Amino acid sequence: MNVFTTRKSLNEALAPLKEAKKSVGFVPTMGALHEGHLALVKRALTESDCVVVSIFVNPTQFNNMQDLDKYPRMLQADVDLLNSIGEVLVFAPTVEEVYPENDAYSPLDLDGIDQVMEGEFRPGHFQGVVHVVRNLFQIVQPTHAYFGLKDFQQVAVIRLLTKKYNFPIQLIACPTLRETSGLAMSSRNLRLTESERKDALIIFQTLKFIQTLKASKSPKEVKELAMEYFSAGKLRLEYLEIVDGSSLKALDAAWSEYSVVCIAAYCGAVRLIDNLELV
Ligand code: PAF
């Protein structure tokens, strides 16, 4: 498998494909790949002439240095996994390649959607995501980019950044992959003990509980009942918000056409997020 560590070598490999007007699918990741990532890559492989997967643990999106240090890094295992599903170009750059000295970046106004939920509890996180995704989009110049809906708010932020920077890229948001237990797949699950994996199920159970109440109660009422339901488990809740899926504004008396519930909670030392579109 081709692993490129510099933007120059990646661009040289992509140049003939771009000249031939081939489509380039891009799957940005921070590595520690799991089935959820592989589903994005498989989809990209079926929809694009060539696929680039970036593996880069982006320091600017971590507001907690311990979290950055503990983030699993396993490049060779990731490359082997990718090898097992098809032909992709892996971009595994250094920090200096992604953030060169002449990199001009000023924070992008994200119309407030970066301030709520994840943004409230992880100040600066989304500016870090926007910065790295902007730089990666500029390097790879894909025609299509694939993101998982587990990071629901991130997808909304990246949609806005694509629009604001006028990137001619089609964004494809892919459904969350779950283990049979219901636990959303995440690289962070690697840090959970067996008993924590069981404790973590309260997140998906709460999401489903909310779904059952939607027809008969208001978002405000549902939120109160859901907080109580969640508190019977062992996790420490950071937020549980029922929002309009487009504006990310909290819903109170009435449901919107596109209502989504988002949860962030600590399972031991591991912070987990999940969400469900309420139908
Ligand atoms: O979702 C992720 O893994 C990261 O936030 C991303 C999009 C690769 C940017 O570092």
Folded structure, characterized:
By secondary structure, the protein is of the alpha/beta class. Strand 2, helix 2 and strand 3 form a beta-alpha-beta unit. The strands form 2 sheets. The chain has a 6-stranded parallel sheet with strand order 1-4-3-2-5-6, sandwiched between helices. It has a 3-stranded antiparallel sheet with strand order 7-8-9. Helix 7 packs across helix 8. It is globular. The protein has 11 helices and 9 strands. The termini are far apart. The model has no long low-confidence stretch (mean pLDDT 97). The chain has 2 domains: 172 residues, Rossmann fold, CATH 3.40.50.620; 88 residues, Pantoate--beta-alanine Ligase, Chain: A,domain 2. The protein binds pantoate. The site of pantoate (PAF) has 10 residues, from strand 2 and helix 7.
CATH H-tier superfamily of the largest domain = HUPs
Describe the strand arrangement of the main beta sheet, using strand numbers.
Answer: 1-4-3-2-5-6
- Calculate the terminal CA-CA distance, rounded to whole Å: 42 Å
Number of discrete helical segments: 11
Provide a concise account of the structure shown.
This protein is an alpha/beta fold.
Helix and strand arrangement:
Layout: E1 2-4, H1 7-19, E2 24-29, H2 35-47, E3 50-55, H3 65-70, H4 75-85, E4 89-91, H5 95-98, H6 118-121, H7 125-140, E5 144-148, H8 152-164, E6 170-174, H9 194-199, H10 201-213, H11 219-231, E7 236-244, E8 259-267, E9 270-278
Helix pairs in contact: 7-8, 10-11
Bound molecules: pantoate (PAF).
